[in-house]
Amino acid sequence: MRKLSKKYNRSGGPFKRASEQEQFIAVDHVSFEVTQGETFAVVGESGCGKTTLARMLLRLIEPDGGQILFAGRDLLALSAAELRAHRREMQMIFQDPFASLDPRMRVGEIVGEPLAIHEPKLSKAERAPRTLAILERVGLRADALRRYPHEFSGGQRQRIGIARALILRPKLIVADEPVSALDVSVGAQVLLLLRELQSEFNLTYVFISHSLPVVAQLATRIAVMRGGKFVELGEAEQVLHQPAHEYTRELLSAVPALPVA
User: pLDDT, tens digit, for every residue of 175-187?
Assistant: First the structure.
């Protein structure tokens, strides 16, 4: 990622013309690299631009400027057809397991849908064993195939989202706050699953979070984001234990200490 930037118009009120609207800089010329097999975490408080950044990486939001290079190819220069073909190598796990799954579709259809899109020559019968295999790998039973999302808990729905992201065997997973909507104990189980899957499938993660304790469990490198910019970037051990920037120290000091019995 080279000098990615994104601005939005901020409404100035009902009596201001469009030309008078203020511009809000969500991402301000951010550059970084992610190496194969690592977990690159982006941490910051709400509104700092980290989710906009995550969505730009997959071109779910178009940047105003900069470059996105994946395996040597400039994603911003790809046609719609070329981008669709490339998308099978890059998938996203969304923050809200309640909103990211279509309530009208059965789980088998949700998880198998990427196969239907990217491998259209496969019949429904041919997709079924692959769908079942990835569901079982994330800890769900075969009876999940015919059920609907509302029949599952939040943690189970996030596992469904993970299965959908992994069924194409992508190289890169962008995880946008994947445990923030879950209870702590359930979130810990999902983080453990993500770590196991990374090792098993040789995945590369870009992991978005507002919580340093969460990313400490997975990250190899951490970027701390504030006001659309990275204020600190380094190895996880260094950022967590020897932070160089005052804002990083503020985030760490805000983590509550557990009482000693």
Answer: 999 988 888 899 9
Which of 127, 61, 65, 136 minimizes the C-alpha distance to 92? 61
Q: Which residue has the tokens 């951010």?
A: 30
Give the structural domain span for 135: 96-169
In sign, the C-alpha dihedral spanning 12, 57, 254, 252 is: negative
- CB atoms near residue 54 (< 10 Å): 22
Q: Residue 70: which of 172, 174, 166 has the closest Cα?
A: 172
State how many domains the chain has.
1
Long-range contacts of 117-123 (CB under 8 A, 24+ apart): 117/84, 118/84, 118/85, 118/87, 118/88, 118/168
How far is it, in rounded angstroms, from Cα 37 to Cα 202?
Answer: 6
User: How many Å apart are CA 118 and CA 116, to the nearest integer?
Assistant: 6
Distances (CA, A) of 232 to 29, 37, 110, 127: 14, 22, 38, 44
Q: Does some domain include residue 161?
A: yes
Q: What is the pTM of this model?
A: 0.89
- Per the domain annotation, does 151 fall within a domain? yes
Residue spans of alpha helices (H) in 107-153? 107-118, 124-137
What is the amino acid identity at position 23? Q
**Closest listed residue to residue 68, CA positions, set 94, 107, 32:** 32
